[in-house]
Amino acid sequence: MKALSISPRLAIAAGLVALFVAIPLVYIFIRAFGADTESWQRLLQTRIWKLLGNTLLLVVAVTSGTLVTGVSMAWLTERTDLPGRKIFRWMLVMPLAIPAYIGGIVYLALLRPRGGYIPQVLENIFGQSVFTPSPLGFFGAAFILTLFTYPYVYLLSGAAFRSLHASLEEAARTFGRTTFQTLFQVTLPALRPGLAAGALLVALDILAEYGTVALLRYETFSSAIFVQLSGRYDRSAASVLSGILVTLAILILWSELRLQGQARFTQMESNWRPAPLTLLGKWRFPAFLLVMGVISASLIIPVAVLVVWSIQAFLDSQSLTTIFHTGSQGFGSYVWNSLWSSGLAALIAVLFSLPVALLAVRYPNRFSRFISRFCQVGYAIPGVVIALSLVLFVNRTLPFLYATPFVIVIAYVLRHMPQAIRASESALNQLSPSLEEASRTLGRTSLQTLFQVTLPLILPGLLAGGSLVFITSLKELPATLLLRPPGFDTLAVRVWVWAGEGFYLQAAPAALLLVLISALPLSFLLRREKIFR
Amino acid sequence: MVSKTKISIFLLVMMIGASACSAAPAVTEESATLAAPVTSVSTEAPVEAEVAGDLVIYSGRSEPLIQPVIDAFKAKYPNVEVLLKAGSNSELANALLEEQANPQADVFITTELFTVQSLAGQGIFQSYLPLGADQLPDEFLGADSMWTGLTRRARVIIYNKDLVSEDELPTSIFDLTDPKWKGQIAAAGSTNGSMQAQIAAMRQLLGEEETEAWLNGLIANEVTFFGGHTDVRKAVGAGEFKLGLVNHYYFHLQQAEGSNVGIIFPDQGEGQIGLLSNATAAAIVNSAPHTAAAQAFLDFLVSADGQKLFAEQNYEYPLLPGVALQADVQPLDGFRLADVNVVQAALDFDATFDLIEKVGLP
Questions:
Q1: Are A232 and A356 in contact, with CB atoms under 8 Å apart?
Q2: Shortest Cα distance from A87 to chain B (angstroms)?
Q3: Dihedral angle sign, alpha carbons of residues B64, B66, B69, B74
Q4: Per-residue pLDDT at B301 exceeds 50
Q5: Residue at A207 is within a domain
Q6: Which chain B positions have a beta carbon within 8 Å of A486's beta carbon?
Q7: Residue burial B328-354, b: 16+ Cβ < 10 Å; e: rest
Q8: For residue A5, what pLDDT band results from cuts at 50, 70 and 90?
Q9: How confident is the model at residue B38 (pLDDT cuts 50, 70, 90)?
C-alpha cells in the first residue's frame, strides 16, 4: 500500500476535536499555576501531603485487590474444571453495571457500625453488640472499590489466559515444574503486559473516584477538591488540587498508553490450541465457594438489597409519593433526562472520535498518533475537575450555554470520548484499507467512500463505543451534580441525593433502574466477544 | 482468531476502564426527615393565579427541608414552576458570584447569616422587604432589606441516653475536646454552613487562638466529621457515637424517629460563652429573571403559614412573633445566648475559612 498524504479536511477535523478536548486541561493548568502563592503555601503546609498519601494508598490497595481477585477468578473460570464456569463468566463481569457508589450505599446500610442492618440483627440475637467489619474508612473503601472494579482485570486476564500459547506451559511442565510453579513462573509473567495495563486503568479509576470515598469518609484528592468547591468562596485551592491530581493521572495514563502500545506485539498467532484444564479435584468445592463469594458480594447482595428496598418502597405510600413526585419533577423526567443526556453524549463522542480514529489508523505517523493519544486525556481528568473547568469556562465564554443541560453533555463527551476513540480505532483496524481503496479507484470521492463503504462496515464497532460512553455517562455523578441546572435531575443524581439523606427506600428503585439500564448495553458488548457467546 | 478475541477484549476493558463511576459528595447542608405530607396550611389559603412562570431557588437548606415549603407555596401559586438547586451555602454562593453577569437564580436561601450578609456586601442581592417582615426582630433583617431572616436555630449537643449517663454529661462545647470522649463524638465538617458559622462566631467571641485550639482539640479527640447533620444525628441515635454537635432540631428529628437521645444546651454557666445560635435567611438575587415570583415566595416564607411549616415540620424557632413552637421545643428565652455581630462576622468570614483550612478540618 502506498503511503497516502494526509487529507487536510480530516486533519483539520481531528485537530478541532483535539482543541475541544484541550479546553478543560489547559484551563485547569492556567488556574492552578496562576493561583497565588499563598494558596499553594497553605495547601503545601497542610493538606497536600496527607491527601497524596491517602490517595496513593487507596490506589495501590485497590489495584492489588483487583489484580488478585481478577486474575484468580479468571484462572478458575478459564483454566480449571470449575463447575458452572460458563455462567460465572457472565456473572463475574456484571458488577460493571453497578456504580461503586451504589455498592457503597448498600454496604453502608448493611454494615454501618451499630446502625447497620446486620449489626442490629446480631445485637438482637445475642443481646449485645457483636463485632462486624466496618465499611467505613480506608479498609471499607478499598474493599468496596475492589468489588466493583475487579471485572476490568478479570475480563483482561480471562482473555489472556484463553489466548496464551499452550506450548509455553507444556514446556514448563516437561521440565518438571508443578502446576502451580508453572502458573507463577511461566503463565502469570507471560500475562504481565495486559495485567499491568489493566492495573493502571483501575488506578485511573480510583484517582477519579468520588462518590464511594465521600460516602465511606475516606479523603482523597477528588473528595478534597469537592470540599474546597463547596467550602469557601474561592476556587484557587480547588484549582491547585485539580492541577496536581490531573498531573498524577496523566503520568498513569502515559504509562498505560505505552503498555497498550507494547501489548499489541505480545500476541502469538500461529499454532494456537487451548491449554488443558487443570483438574481441581478436592479443591473443586472450595473454589466454587470462593467464586460464589465474590459473585455474591459484588453482584447478588447489592442487587438483592436494591430489589428488597424497591419492593418496600412500593409498599410504602409516603416513599412512593416522593419517588414519583419531588417538587415539579416526576420519576419519568429523571429517567428521560438520564437517557437523553447520556444518549446524546454517546452520539457526539462517536462522531467526534471518527476523524481522530481515521487519521490515526489510516495515516499513522507521529502527528496522528499524538492527536489520538491527546484526545484520550479525558481518562485522566476526573469528573469534578471537568465540571470545575466547564463552569468557569462556559460562563465566561459561552454564557448562553451556561446552566443548560448541554454543559453536562459536553462534560460527558470530554470525560468519556477515549472509549469512543478506542472503539472506533479498533473497528477501523479490523477493516482492510483495500476496500476503501477499491471504492476510490471506482470513482467515489473520499466523503462518498466514508459514508458508503467505511461507516456501514464499522457500524457495529461504533455502536460498541457508543454503548460504552452511554453506560459510563449514565452513572456519572460529580460533573452532573456540579453542572446540573436547577430542576434538572438524573437517575444518578436522585440516587445520590436520596441516599445522602438516608432515604434508602426512595433511592432503591432509581438505583435498580440505573443498574438494569446499564446491564443491557453491557451484555450487548459482551456478546460481541467470542467467549461470552 | 483467539488472539483477536484477546485484542478485542483488551480494548473493551481499556475502553470501559477509567470511566470512573466517580461521584460527588453530599454537600447539602441541613437535612431532615422526609417531610410529612403538607399540612392543611396551604389548602386554606386562597389560590393566587396572577403570579406565573418559573422560580429558580438556590437553597442551602437541603431538599427535604425546603420541599414542604415549596409544595405549600405551589399550592397557593399553582402557575409558578419552582426549580430547585440545593447545595451547601458556600457552593451556591460561589455560583451566584460566578453568575453575576448572567444571573440564573431568583431566590437564595441560606442556613446562616454570614453568607447572605457577605454576598449583600458584594452587591449580589436586590432590596426587598417582604410583606409582614416589619414584624421580625430588627437583627434578623439585612441592611437596606437585602436579606430577610426566616427561622432561628441553636447549636446544641445531642447524646445517646443508652450510652451516656446524666452525671457525666458535657456542659460546654469545650468539653468535646476532653480525652474521655475520644473517638465518641460526631460533628459536621467544614462544608457545612452551620459549622462554618459556629467557627466564625467563636472567632469573634474568643479570638483566633482559642478557636484554633478548640478545633485542633476536636481533631485530636478523633471527632468524626460528616458532610451534614443528618448523618450525625442518625449515628448518635444508632449508638455509633455517644455525642454529636448539631443544630437543636436534629435532636427532635432523631427523637421523633424513636431513638433514645437527649439534648444539651451548652455553655450556660458563669464565664462561659453562652448558647450559640444562628438564623436561616432568604434574599432575592440582583436582576433575578423572575422577580415577581421571587417576591411572592419571600412573602410566603415570612407569612404565618410559611413560618408555621418551619416550626411544625422542622422544630425551628420561627422569627415571626405569635407563631407557636412545636411541642417539646424549649423556648430560647430560657437560655443565655452568645451575642455575635453578624456584620463583623461576615466581614471576617474569609479569615474563618483560612482558619478552617489551616487546622485542616475535614
A1: no
A2: 18
A3: negative
A4: yes
A5: no
A6: 56-58, 83-85, 104-105
A7: ebeebeebebbebebeebbebbeebbe
A8: low
A9: very low
- pLDDT range class, residue B49, cuts 50, 70, 90: low
| CATH number corresponding to B157-275+353-359 | 3.40.190.10
The answer to whether position A4 is within a domain reads: yes
- Judging contacts by C-beta atoms under 8 Å, the chain B residues touching residue A502 are 31, 230-231, 234
Domain that holds residue A500: 1-34+306-533
Q: Who wins on pLDDT, B150 or A28?
A: B150
Sort B85 into a burial class: Cβ within 10 Å, 0-12 / 13-18 / 19+.
buried
Q: How far is B278 from chain A (nearest CA, A)?
A: 18
Q: Decide whether B41-152+277-331 matches B157-275+353-359 in CATH topology.
A: yes
Mean pLDDT of the residues in chain A = 85
Q: How confident is the prediction for chain B on average, in pLDDT?
A: 85
Interface confidence (ipTM) of the complex: 0.77
Q: For position A200, what pLDDT does the model report?
A: 80
Mean pLDDT of B70-89: 90
The whole-number pLDDT of residue A243 equals: 87
Mind telling me how many Å the CA of A42 is from chain B's nearest CA?
7
pLDDT of residue A327: 53
- Kindly report, residue by residue over A396-432, the tens digit of the pLDDT: 888 888 889 999 999 999 999 988 998 898 888 888 8
What is the rounded average pLDDT of the residues A164-180? 78
In a domain, A521, yes or no: yes
B178 vs B237: CA distance, rounded Å? 21
Q: How far apart are CA A387 and CA A369, in angstroms?
A: 27
B336 in contact with A at a CB cutoff of 8 Å?
Answer: no
Residues of chain B with C-beta less than 8 angstroms from the C-beta of A155:
9, 12-13, 16
Give residues with Cβ within 8 angstroms of A375, minimum separation 6.
A17, A18, A21, A353, A356, A417, A418, A421
Give the pairing of strands B80-86 and B125-126: unpaired
Task: For residue B290, give the amino acid letter.
Answer: H
B84 to A486: CB separation less than 8 angstroms, yes or no = yes
**Which residue has cell 492527536?**
A371
Into how many domains does chain A fold? 1
For CA atoms B80, B84, B90, B96, give the dihedral sign. negative
The pLDDT confidence band at residue B16, using thresholds 50, 70 and 90, is low
Does the beta carbon of B34 lie under 8 angstroms from any beta carbon of chain A? Answer: yes
Bridge partner residues of A339 (DSSP): none
Interchain contact, A384 vs B350, CB within 8 Å: no
> What tens digit of pLDDT does each residue of A109-145 get?
898 876 788 888 888 888 877 788 888 889 999 999 9
CATH number at residue A20: 1.10.3720.10
What is the CATH code for B41-152+277-331? 3.40.190.10
Residue A158 lies in a domain: no
Predicted pLDDT of residue A131:
82
Domains of chain B, residue spans: 41-152+277-331, 157-275+353-359
Answer whether B22 sits within 8 Å of A383, measured CB to CB: yes
Q: Give the residue among B204, B207, B202, B208 at the shortest CA–CA distance from B174.
A: B202
Rg (CA), chain B: 22
